[in-house]
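Kindly inspect this chain:
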Amino acid sequence: MKCKICGVKTIDGPNGVPLEICEHCEKKLETSSLRMAYTFKFSTVVWLLLGLIVPFWIITLPLFWFFAYLSYSSGVNPNLIPKSPAIEPAPTNLDELKKLKQLLDSGAITNEEFENEKKALLSSQA
């Protein structure tokens, strides 16, 4: 996979999944203001609406719109954060038993093999 910013091939992250941003761009982003996201958020819209709805516009309008600006200018741009791969939870004994039952129903294993595997799973649980 190539870096979204500079286009250089990225290294593999945890679990062998390539990162979306290279190490050089990641270090550059940590020290720069590129992480600041000037985007509308829910709180930005709420502040703007409060500025229009609340009476005493001479006071509330500039105040609430200032809060809206602070909300608009703060935060992290979600497109610039490298996404870590999702870690799947370890399969439980119940999941293993369901797989074994499916194998038994499909005829891939015999009833005797199913019982032996089930006993091994249940004994490892204790």
Summary: The helical segments are 23-31, 42-53, 57-73, 93-106, 111-125. The chain has a mean pLDDT of 76. The chain has two domains: 14-80, 93-125.
